[in-house]
# Entry
Amino acid sequence: MKEKLSVLVLGIATLLSSCGNQKKVDKPQDSLIPVAGVPIQAPKMMIVAKISVKPEKADLFIEAAKDIIEKSNAEEGCTFYQLYRDPYDASKFIFVEEYKDQAAVDFHFAADYFNNFGTKIADFVSAAAEIKIIEVGLETLK
# Structure
């Protein structure tokens, strides 16, 4: 049993180390070769933004967020834009966003309502936002 477990652990470690050595491609859509004539689309993008607000400003933050949520969801390249509240700490929020590609993210960041939102909530936040932009795995079109 110990032998099988050791082999399994060694196999996983080898797999993980080989995954970490792969070269990152700056523009994956430019270097992909379609398989069997199936076109490849650019990777979807996701954004996860964690925001902490002053407890007494939480309701004002939610009210201010309604506008950016509505307008962002109306963007052609936005497939999902939602705000969640931590059920254990009512002053912590997370925006989860999904866009069809990097151009859609760029459009969102350039929008007036996006830039105005930062100014609007500046007095509500208690710490700098933690923002992660994630490139979702490539998919072939069906």
The chain is about 40% helix and 20% strand.
